[in-house]
Design brief:
Elements: H1 3-19, E1 29-34, E2 37-40, E3 56-58, E4 64-65, H2 73-82, E5 88-92, H3 95-102, E6 124-125, H4 133-142, E7 148-151, E8 155-160, H5 163-184, H6 194-207
Helix pairs in contact: 2-4, 3-5
Length: 226
């Protein structure tokens, strides 16, 4: 993919964030790895007005070319710098995930789909002022061994290899957050054991669950030999 194609896809993904309801207005931000740095959405520009050339190019030292980058560039830089397995960082203020984040709640394994975030919980990072190194440090800790986290009294982060995969994960985190809020209305839900979640996560990894189509023929039923 060329850099121009990546810019086009990033703008489209930003617009999908608002269209799907996981983000509102100019909140949230998105970044994608380049060979020697990353592209990030600019500060305070509505997505429906954003053009590919508005995306800001940064390096891992924090210098940038073009307009003013998102105020949250630090955690985008630090995640991409410290997680070579990750190429995309998506941050949004989805309503139910933010509701849980306002209570500093981790999301436990009340549902097996928690495993899509890479572990037995979706952690909530400690609160820190937006745009600070302290927030970046808290996000990195919450994302250790994970592909998503909540940010205390703030929102959520999802990370991945592709824009499509990462948007899907952020939407799934919001869906799980909504389910958990609704389940709590009936009382504390039962939690799946670590052993069961290990089986779930192993199954998800073998099937590339949430990361793309299953290998061709993976659902074929073995036929008895004649």
């Amino acid at each position: 993919m060329t850099e121009h194609e990546l810019r086009l896809q990033m703008v489209e993904t930003c617009r999908q964030m608002n269209a799907t309801g996981i983000n509102q207005g100019t909140s949230g931000n998105l970044s994608a790895r380049l060979d020697d740095g990353f592209l990030i959405t600019p500060s305070s520009l509505p997505y429906d007005q954003m053009k590919p050339n508005d995306l800001v190019e940064m390096d891992f030292e924090g210098t940038f070319v073009g307009g003013r980058p998102s105020s949250e560039w630090r955690f985008h830089r630090d995640i991409l710098k410290n997680r070579p397995d990750i190429d995309i960082v998506l941050h949004c203020h989805s309503v139910y995930a933010t509701t849980l984040a306002c209570h500093h709640r981790n999301i436990p394994a009340f549902h097996y789909m928690i495993g899509v975030a890479g572990g037995t919980t979706i952690r909530c990072a400690d609160y820190a002022t937006f745009g600070t190194q302290e927030l970046s440090d808290a996000a990195l800790a919450a994302l250790d061994g994970r592909r998503a986290c909540l940010l205390g009294q703030h929102g959520q982060i999802a990370v991945g290899k592709t824009l499509e995969e990462t948007l899907w994960l952020a939407t799934e985190v919001e869906t799980l957050s909504r389910l958990y809020v609704q389940a709590l209305a009936l009382g504390d839900p039962p939690i799946l054991s670590d052993a069961e979640m290990a089986r779930v996560i192993d199954q998800m990894q073998r099937m590339s669950y949430g990361l793309g189509p299953e290998p061709e023929g993976s659902n074929d039923v073995p036929r008895p030999r004649s």
